[in-house]
């Protein structure tokens, strides 16, 4: 009885939509979204044979790996700083929460303005410093669109990851570190032999949750990339959306099939990651 509300919630917002998504992936729809009948596995075949699927998959891998890796590295440094006792530490922690508390859509739109070719503050600042003579087309140059989106992805991922690491650092027993100091261990030796191993559970949580969040992130990719036609800078999430609403296919069945593939991909990645870090042993 105590679990019934939670189970009903899971059934309503997870299992039922998942079943409907799978059913939609096996159906054929009109351009207006009306179901015409069964399509079998043809939607999956159409998705897997799409000429730009390879580009989208590469974009997705680069997007996820780059954002998660850069976020973890920077967050480790920020966490090490923010656990120290210094004037203004509380204010610094509050400031770090802002990108997390703000809507991702609002943050993404803010960066669209910052990246603007004509009026963007970033171009204005670079020109003022004499680093560039002509404005940079951050969101119009295919070579810069994905790096520009990665920068925004890192920006919005830092707060959560940093606070996870702060919690992990605060949980490390001080007597262990003191014993290492007494034994003559240097700062780097203490960090490599004590801090990082004891931070492994926090690293696992941050990496897994960030991988899920970044992979499924729609607002950043869509908002910063909406001016560019085609799928050249899309990930699997925006590829799925455009298949249904913005591409020449306008195929809800193909979009649903892509959604099922996305779910399976993220599950496989998480299972592989948990296997690599010996999740069962670490959580006993």
In short:
The chain has 284 residues and is an all-alpha fold.
How would you sum up this structure, described in words?
By secondary structure, the chain is mainly alpha-helical. Helices cover 71% and strands 2% of the residues. The chain has a single domain, classed as MetI-like fold (Orthogonal Bundle). It has helices spanning 4-25, 42-48, 53-82, 89-101, 104-114, 121-128, 142-170, 174-182, 187-198, 200-215, 219-225, 236-245, 252-276, 279-282; strands at 27-29, 35-38. A two-stranded antiparallel sheet has the order 1-2. A hairpin with a 5-residue loop joins strand 1 (27-29) and strand 2. The longest helix has 30 residues, at 53-82. The protein is globular and about 75 Å long.
Biggest sheet layout: 2 strands, antiparallel
Give the N-to-C terminal Cα separation: 28 Å
Biggest sheet, spatial arrangement of strands:
1-2
Mean pLDDT: 87
Backbone shape: globular
User: What string, H for helix and E for strand, traces the elements in order?
Assistant: HEEHHHHHHHHHHHHH
Q: How many structural domains can be distinguished in the coordinates? A: 1
Instruction: Give the second-level CATH assignment, the architecture.
Output: Orthogonal Bundle
Top CATH class: Mainly Alpha
CATH topology: MetI-like fold
- Poorly predicted ranges: none
Specify the CATH homologous superfamily. MetI-like
Strand content: under 5%
